[in-house]
Amino acid sequence: MAETGNDASRKDWDTYFMDIAYMVSTRSRCPRRHVGAVLVQGKKLLGTAYNGAPMGVPDCSDAGCMIAEEIEVNITDGVEQVVRKQRCIRTIHAEQNLLLFTDRANREGSTVYVTDQPCWTCANMLANSGVVEIVYHRSYPKDSVKVYSLMEQKGIVFRQLQSYAPPEQAQMAVIP
User: Fold this and answer.
1) Residue (of 39, 12, 19, 49) closest to 170 by Cα position
2) pLDDT tens for residues 35-65?
3) Which pick of 1, 39, 77, 144 has the fewest CB atoms within 10 Å?
4) Can 152 be counted among the known catalytic residues?
C-alpha cells in the first residue's frame, strides 16, 4: 500500500496505519507485550483493538499474568526439536478483539495492520475472517513457520514492515 507522489514529508500508508496500530497498543495493560491491530478497507480505517483481559475483569497489571506453558515438537529433516511456549491466557489478543468488534462485511477484502506477527490461533482466525492482507512489524518466531504456511495456503498477503520504526511514545520492551 505504498504512497505515490512527491511529498517526502508525508508518511506512506503502511507507516501511517502501523503508527495507528502502535498508538492503539498503548491502551494495553499487559506487562509482557502491548499489541495493537487496525482494520483498513482501502484507505479507510474501520476498527482498532488491543490485547487485554475481557471487559470488566481485572487485567494482568492488577491480577498478574496467567501463564500457561505449551510444549510443541517440531521435526525438521528428521531432527526432533522441542519448543516451549509461554502464553498468557488471561489476555484476549488484539487480533481476536478486532474480529469481535468488527463486522464480517467490513472485513471482506480488507487489510489488518498489527504490531506483532499473529500467533497460530490468531492467524487461524484471521485466515477465516475475510481479510486479504496482514501487515505486521515485530516477528513472533515461535509460530512463524506455521503461520507463513497457512497464509500461503489461504492466499493471504502476509508481510513484515522490517524498516519501520514505531512512534517513540508507543515503544516498550517485549518479553518473548
Assistant:
1) 19
2) 999 999 999 999 999 999 999 999 988 998 8
3) 77
4) no
Q: State pTM to two decimals.
A: 0.87
Nine cell digits for residue 106: 467490513
Q: Which of 3, 69, 70, 95 is catalytic?
A: 95
Instruction: Reduce the DSSP state of residue 95 to 3 states and report it.
Output: helix
88 is in an annotated binding site: no
119 carries a ligand binding annotation:
yes
Domains and CATH numbers, the chain: 13-53+92-170 (3.40.140.10)
- Name all contacts of 100-103 with Cβ < 8 Å and 24+ positions apart: 100/49, 101/47, 101/49, 102/39, 102/46, 102/47
- Residue pLDDT, tens place only, 105-144: 999 999 999 999 999 999 999 999 999 999 999 998 888 9
Pairing between β-strand 79-88 and β-strand 111-116 as defined by DSSP bridges? unpaired
